[in-house]
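Attaching the record inline, Q. Sequence:
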Amino acid sequence: PGLETKFSETTVFKILQYTLVVTIPQFKILQF
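Structure, as predicted:
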C-alpha cells in the first residue's frame, strides 16, 4: 500500500507540474 500511495502521489504531482508548464505559457499568451 505504501508504494502504491507514493507512486500515486508522484504521478499526481507530475501531472500537476506538467499541467502548469503547459497552461502558464498559454495564459501569458492570452494576457498579451
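The CA atoms of residues 2 and 8 lie 10 Å apart. Residues 1-32 form one domain.

More tomorrow.
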